[in-house]
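tl;dr need the bound structure. longer version: we got a ligand (iron/sulfur cluster) that a collaborator sent over and nobodys looked at where it sits. i said id run it. heres the input, straight from their email, havent touched it
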Amino acid sequence: MASFYLHVPFCRRACHYCDFHFSTKLDYIDRMVIAMTEEMRLRKTDWQEATFNTLYLGGGTPSVLSKQQLLVLKNAALAHYSFTSDFEFTLEVNPEDVNEDQIMSWKEAGVNRLSIGLQSFEDRDLKLMNRAHSSEDSLRSLQLAVNHFDRVSVDVIYGIPGQSDELLQNGINKVVAIGATHVSAYALTVEPKTALASYIEKELIPDIDEEQAERQFLVVLDTLTSKGFEHYEISNFALPGHYSVNNSSYWKGISYVGIGPSAHGFDGKSRYWNIAQNHKYMNAIEGGILNFESEELTIKDRYNEFVMTSLRTQWGVSYQDLESEFGTPYLNYFKMMITPFLLDALLFEEEGVIRATRKGKFLIDGIASELFMVELKTNRT
Ligand code: SF4
């Protein structure tokens, strides 16, 4: 199975913390949609053998699309690629776009899973991040979504300067009480060249507090797991049976095609990434050319990715899988490198599988990067 990602590079407003690729000029969405359908046509020969079990529209803000534009993208994907009959069809939406009419048009287009960029139930937090919606929109959109969809995911941000643990916990309790089946929770991070970075530098906003972020990660984890959610990836929680097929595929190293400006794709051996500029992307496609870069992953690159993605999940790193995929020298290297983290109780071993402890979870990206292969002499490259 493979995954299919469509990047819709438009947003109504620029959130202060965001470094994703998008434009707030919305007057050429039709032209972009046509270019993306053309990219699907141009790429299809590389994916003739693949069957896709998930179609994911992310961005950007895919809920800026009209029903017609959404259908054009979906129909092109189905016309050129092979999908399972019950594929997961996720649409990322922002609360300000959710209303009865839109919900019905998404359902009619075949969407069967909504992912709402809710982020917070507090106006103060939403304002600080320059979100385009209010706390009232957060409540209303989630309620409407669960009235009509069985699978509803929400994004939540913690570690926001000045955010209280108590209000964060109240927000998570609301998400669960209203009926979300999946929660993606992210620590607010300061990306270079964002408005947030500049406000912090000018001392208009306090800097991110790592202790607060770590504490609030545990607030989210404890609140959701006490309500029956499974912590299946470091930033992702789901009720049983509601894991995201799309996200799980990335973590399991499954191939994916990415369509749209800045989208990435991976065929199991090499990765490509499209140019992250809307007009250059469209101009190239209109001239029959795909504007992208690519790289072939070495065994070392694949090992590093395997360690990072596996340690972030509840499935962990299996010695057996690691050895069969990369060979004994890589297994020995991994065992050597994890020793200090086992001693510090940041990782633990159970029946040949290494996972993060509660203490190690928040630090897992840093731990995983310490285990990366920088140089190893073997006859495999
Ligand atoms: S809506 Fe999402 S993609 Fe758009 S600016 Fe905000 S965080 Fe970034």
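gonna send this back to them w/ a short note. The domain at 299-370 is CATH 1.10.10.920 (Arc Repressor Mutant, subunit A).
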